[in-house]
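Collaborator request, handled under Task 6.
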Amino acid sequence: MIEDKKIRELIKFGDYLTQVGAELHDEVLGHDYLLEEDLQQVLGPRFIQKKLPMLRELNFHREVFGLTWKEGIKPDFTFLADEDSKVSQPFIVEFKHTTKLTNDHRKELLQQLKFGQNTFLNKDDDLNYGFLWNIVKHKYQVSNEIIQKISVSKLDDLITELQKVKESEEKKDKIKFLGDLFMTILKDSPKVFSHKDFAKEVDAHLKEHDLTIGEVLSNFEPSYKQVFNNSLKEGSLFKLEVESDPKVELELWKINGVGQNLSMELIKSY
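Structure tokens returned to the collaborator:
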């Protein structure tokens, strides 16, 4: 029963970390220059404002061959047992700001819990839990959406657009305009191609400007590439889009075993 109560406390604290992480994620989104250490600098004061019993980068001394090494291992945040904070046991929070949690990160947390067993935090044999917390550093993809100045959803729209060919003086510009027009229709309103008067209207305008369908089709391929491959062209809208979710990764682990058989059990993945 006591163990169940402790786990419930930690799961509730994990809910708090998830909320804090999601808020900070939104604050730093797009600021790719911010490092993991920068976010830690932000998080520390937030924990203090909540009057949480926390120490940053507390040094856990390494013991090897019976010797204590000065330079140990330092969890990002170590929380102490505190009745006022409704946390009845110490625990570790190892923080990351990366694209995804990996087994190397889990190994790091296991090492921290291992060396924490020989510290004052474990005087009552209750340093058993640790959080692995990642505020996801998203990758971005570039979206070159073409701001379409051409809108064709019915035959009347096609006729209106075809009349704009007159605005171009050079033959090559007329060919390019028609190539873009046909490509836009293919992408957005392919049903217009099947209208019974489509061919008649196109042929009439081609003859009016002394053009052939072959010349227009010669520009069709580059127009196709521009629309479907998102290559830059005049009128493109450049923006960044987040490639994936989630905002936060959080795992609660419990240390098991002793000595060489040390391991961790996943209690909850948020």
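The cover message to the collaborator said: "The first strand starts at residue 54 and ends at 56. The two ends are 23 Å apart (CA to CA). Please let us know whether this matches your experimental observations."
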